[in-house]
Amino acid sequence: MLKPRSVREVIQAGWFLYRRRFRFVLTASLSILFPYAMIAAYVQAHFTMLSSDEMQQLMTDVGSNAQTSSLLSVLPHGSEIWFIVLGLMYMLLVVPLLQGILVHMTAQIMLKKQDVTVSEAGNLAFRRLLPNVGTLVLVGLIYVFFIAVFTLIIFLIFSLLGSVSQALASVIVVLGSIALFIGVIWFLLRVSMVSLVVVEEHRSFFGAIRQSFRLTRDQAKRLFGFFVMLFLICLVIETFLSLMGSVFFPSAGGGLMIDSLISIFLTPFAMLCMSVMYVDLRIRRGE
């Protein structure tokens, strides 16, 4: 298994590990994702779901091209707070723990030919949780800082050129927006392995970011293709299962249950593919 892989082979290896260690994967997913899914389902059912009258009003507003403020006013009061809380819980707790468990299992099997238990991988992921969260927050701050600086530069250029040529200023803004979009994608690809590095290589903060940049050097196009392919595969599977679930469980509660089950089974597959890609990048760097 110690060989460089194509994008297709990485996903195939992820599927192979998913099937081979299905009990491990399911146990980890139920331990981490299931409690979150129950909390998210409870919050959605009690605090963020619209009544039939509210849903009808929302559809009417959408059909009449209502302003964003009008659409938001239809949503249950305080629902935006719950969405933020659930999003932060998912990104800073669920993902680091589950990804940490799966990447440690993957690295041990592929690099050392050793199996680990869920408790061993879970203990490592939990011990590395605070450095993981801190590093992810640092990445987010760097991301926001450069977005703000780039936006400010574009705004200043637009202000200076606006008095000379409005057309030229508009072209600069369009080109700047395209460059910003490409830069954001490039940055996200280069830091995509940060969380895995924190757990498996015991690096944190700037050390983990530098290592992620080192592993992904000259790999941006390949990583972009990998994430696009993985997204499409997961999207097709999720859409198919959601449609099947809506046929057998047409109620709102049934929809929440189906969404939770899909997440429990599909999310670990995507994370395993990412873990295989991380190991492949290390192999390509001779580690």
Automatic annotation (TrEMBL):
Transmembrane regions listed in the UniProt entry: 21-43, 81-103, 136-161, 167-189, 223-249, 261-281
Claim: Transmembrane is one of the keywords in the record: yes
The organism's place on the tree of life at top rank: Bacteria
Key words, A-Z: Membrane, Transmembrane, Transmembrane helix
Name of this protein: Glycerophosphoryl diester phosphodiesterase membrane domain-containing protein
Top-level taxonomy: Bacteria, Bacillati, Bacillota, Bacilli, Bacillales
